[in-house]
Known about the structure:
Elements lengths: L3 E7 L2 H14 L3 E7 L5 E3 L2 E3 L1 H10 L17 H8 L11 H15 L4 H12 L4 E4 L7 E7 L2 E6 H7 L6 E6 L11 H6 L3 E4 L8 H6 L3 H7 L4 E4 L2 E2 L2 E2 L4 H7 L6 H8 L9 E5 L3 H9 L3 E5 L6 H14 L5
Parallel strand pairs: 1-2, 1-9, 2-5, 9-10, 10-13, 13-14
Antiparallel strand pairs: 3-4, 6-7, 6-8, 11-12
Helix pairs in contact: 1-2, 1-13, 4-5
Amino acid sequence: MTILKVTVLSGGVGGARFTRGLLSLLGHRGQVTVIANTGDDMWLHGVRVCPDLDTLMYTLGGAVHEEQGWGRRDESSRTSDDLAAYGLGWEWFTLGDLDLATHLARTALLREGLPLSQVTARLAERWSPGVTLLPMTDDEVETHVVVADGQEMQEMHFEEWWVRHRAALPAVRFVQTNLATAAPAPGVLAAIADADVVVVPPSNPVVSVGTILAIPGIRDALRTTSAPVVGVSPVIGGAPVRGMADACLTAIGVETSAVAVARHYGRRPDGVLDAWLVDDRDADAAETLRSEGWLAGAAPTLMTDVPTTARIAADALALVGALP
Ligand code: FO1
């Protein structure tokens, strides 16, 4: 039995749910590596919080709060509520009591001098996510959002824009800190070069996948890998499936449509994709892209449950002839 090596570039909720479906599809026929966005990470109350790594670890480890798509099931917030009484930190950003254990464990290992990639591997042992989970970089790269506050420009952490302001403040631009000196984490470039297929799931194309692509070396690795690269549109019928990706796309001048997002990623060798799977409702988008030389297909792409998501993953792999 040949093992299909699949590498996924993932943000938080959408990418985690897609990967769960991909694992359900592949079973023992697959070996999956997930390269996760760490631009949402922050130091809060003295601990390092890694939202997308944790959403992947909890979702694939069966512990995620399913409705939220992030944080732990059966969670409580006694510590976070009491922290608010001290008036420190972000009272609008709840760190659950169980979730705090993850951040304390991560912070302890970081303080021992382990790089984030080794810390992530160590934490993942407990959860058996069924994938190799890699941060995009071991360096502290954070996504900040520049908003126009009257005549002033104000820069804030992505999570403040996303959670406190619900992306309602028009973003002038996104900035990734420390990008110039950031390097892909160990194993990231090899996971792209050695894959049989690379998948860009329906994660936020700007602040999740876009941030991963901004790490020096990763975009070029995608352009040159011998693996086909297939993406799944995060936009269905002109609207983002979840989250506020439209606010992010608008901020960078990209229309919220299946075609526009594909063109934003670009087709190899200039861009990073070979193929693009859109929802049935955007079948015209697939037609348009095919006329421009893309491998493009249309299928149901709403990830309502694991079996449905497994089929979406199958449709994506089939589009590039990579079904096991
Ligand atoms: N999202 C919220 O809307 N409100 C919160 O209070 C919140 C807390 C939180 C704590 C830890 C964590 O890993 C994620 C958390 N999130 C919260 C979700 C977070 O904004 C998203 O997971 C990603 O950053 C966006 O993909």
